[in-house]
Amino acid sequence: MGRPKKTETTQTKAICSTDTESTDNLVNTKPTINDIEWTDYVLALLSDDEKIAGNPTTDGLRRIFEIALDCTIIESIANVVQCPSPENEKRATVTHQITFVLNDPNADPIFKKRVTSGAADVYWGNCDKVYRNHPVAVAETRAEGRALRRGLKLRKVVAAEELTSSIDDDPDGFSVGKISNNQISFIDQMSKRLNINVVKLLDFMEIKSNISDIAHDVAVSVIRQLSKFQQNLDSIPESIKEYDASWRTT
Fold this sequence. Notes:
Layout: H1 10-27, H2 38-44, E1 51-52, E2 55-56, H3 58-69, E3 71-82, E4 92-102, H4 109-112, E5 113-122, H5 135-152, H6 181-194, H7 198-204, H8 216-231
Antiparallel strand pairs: 1-2, 3-4, 4-5
């Protein structure tokens, strides 16, 4: 007499059913671009060598952009707005625009094509020493990184190339004496852009001297602080906001 055929037990069916549900749940756990978990999801797509101190590199963001958004990039263009010259403190300004199309066949044709952009300016005061002789290249990379971040809608994330760790304190080989006119102009322009009151900023940094009397190295520290604020706008204290153009005469 042959052995009876094995039949699938209720328990086995339950286990298979549970496994299928778990798999479905994993598939459906991808957050949407407007979910609070979206940024963590996108950063998890990066490999370890695509991060520096936890910040994503532009190369990494470029690689995962199409994966995260399920899209196809059809154009990625950089435009040099300002070339370095002695008159502009050797500053380079570059914009970058990325045009892409969503792959979702159900998406409204009107909204399938998207454009994201970013801009960056680089000079000796916001660029690491090792790269300061290549401001256009650095600005181009930073502008692309900002365009990618904007397109991905990442929250409170800065690309690794936007961070600086070793700014050149003395780009012209002169660090003795008082603040220079170029430094004063830069502090004024950057403070205006960030809506910072320079007088309140100096007080915040416990600098008691009149702006025209502070030393060159102290002016460098002010520029460094402004650069940090530029990298993280949320870190600007409310107490030093509201730019006032009359600060030079105060």
